[in-house]
Model the fold of this input.
Amino acid sequence: MTDPEGGFYCGQDADSDGEEGKYYTFAPNEIESVLGQEKGAEFCRLYGITDRGNFEEKSIPNRIGQKAEGWRMGAPEFEMLYEYRKQRVALHKDDKILLSWNAWTIIALARAGSILHDDRYSSAASAAQRFIEESMTDEHSRLFHRFRDGEAAHAGQLDDYAVYALALLELYRTTLDANYLKQAILRAGQMTDLFEDEANGGYFLGARDAERLIARPKELYDGAIPSGNSVAAVVLGRIASLTGDVLWQERSDRQLRFISGQIRDYPAGYSFSMLAVADSLYPHRELVCAGEKPPEELTEYLRKNPADDISVIFKSEENESLLAEIAPFTLNYPLPAQAVLYYLCENGTCRAPVDDFEKLPLGVNAN
Done:
């Protein structure tokens, strides 16, 4: 599902040769014909492949309820089965690359790479972000909605800007590369300029200079995918926290006031919006780490604690001027002559800096 340039395609059909699921399902006799009776029987046992099946009288291989102990299969067996499966009628691939869907994928991969400590996922997230910047932006740095066959087309909608900004914030959190934060601020600023309903609150689906319709739709409800307005609320709040900028806080407050009435009427329909509300209601902490490079203790903490109740800024000699531009409050936190310094703030009150990560009260009930 990955384009050679780094983006991700939309999906694949479920049908192969006229049968739903046929491409990915197996019967025990198929496995044994490829791996032999002994290894085939062992594979079927480990992956739940039975004569009865679990889908249309065949089995989708799975490890549900299984433990890793006793596993004796290796790469050759998987390669043999993969080559066997490739002989089937291939699934049709929808090779459109949609920006908002790619942004959600970036979020998932960036977080997976951090939590699982797996550079494959982190690299894929970074590659997809570069693809968007290089192939899905116009000469004015505005976003396109889709890319296919070497062509980017259709002006980006609210979801594209909002989810992409959230993806950039996730990349920043997992890498502490301030360039991602700068890009997130840029895209969130474009989102506000192009889509905000200044008179009534919220954000329209289409940009103010898009094709004129009878009415400009404004999507609020969180369905299978969160609405652009919900994502915008989260993005605005997190940028306000990271930058300490009053302008972003005002934008966040406006959006929270707009969505709060909708949430009150039907909370279940606005689950993602409630993330923004939770961010604003519960105590939030800001941590500035100043030093030559991000300490392993800090990155390990972020890897093990993916919750978003703490905003982290890493300041170094290399990014000092950039942070002064996008988060001016960091000017108040000087770089140490050696090692690192941690500055922890909560609810507008900052503690004295410490030079040892273990001295930071980062527990759930720290006060």
